Amino acid sequence: MPPIVFTAFADVELILHAGDLVDESVLIELEAIKPVKAVCGNCDPFELELKLPHSTIIELNGYRLGLTHGHQGNRNLPTPLRALSRFEQVDLVVFGHSHAPYNELVDGVRLFNPGSATDRRNQPRCSIGIIELGQTIECRHIFI
């Protein structure tokens, strides 16, 4: 795990992981920083699939957050819209799968992919995300 993850998440209330942990040790490392809500992804082993949901809704500070990996659903849709289709009446959808940072408002719902701290795939850099839930939902990327 890159050291910036420990620094960036030191003051958060909750860590969200949108799947592809690949190994349960990642979950254990993150839980050593702060509480974690995670979902399983398509690269997670069967043991993690038994422990983690494919998607979940988290209620925080008066907001409903949908958390999913983004690989399930209509494969004709791009990943952000596929992730959105998993939920109804949410304010924010946090997803992964593509490992591509994404931050857009779609039909009044913020769609946010923090990217990946360890696997940049076709991206120029790895990244993580910070979400602030105040009067509005603010999402930003930290590029590694």
Q: What is the fold named in CATH at topology level?
A: Purple Acid Phosphatase, chain A, domain 2
Which strand order does the major sheet show?
3-4-5-7-6
Average pLDDT metric = 95
Count of runs of 4 or more consecutive helical residues: 4
CATH architecture grouping: 4-Layer Sandwich
Strand content: 25-35%
Distance between the termini: 11 Å
Overall morphology: globular
Could you give the count of β-strands?
9
Write the CATH homologous superfamily: Metallo-dependent phosphatases
* Helix-strand category: alpha/beta
CATH class, named: Alpha Beta
Rg measurement, Å? 14 Å
Main sheet record: 5 strands, mixed
Q: Helical content, roughly? A: 10-25%
Number of domains: 1
Helix/strand order: HEHEHEEHEEEEE
**Which consecutive residue ranges, at least 5 long each, have pLDDT under 50?**
none
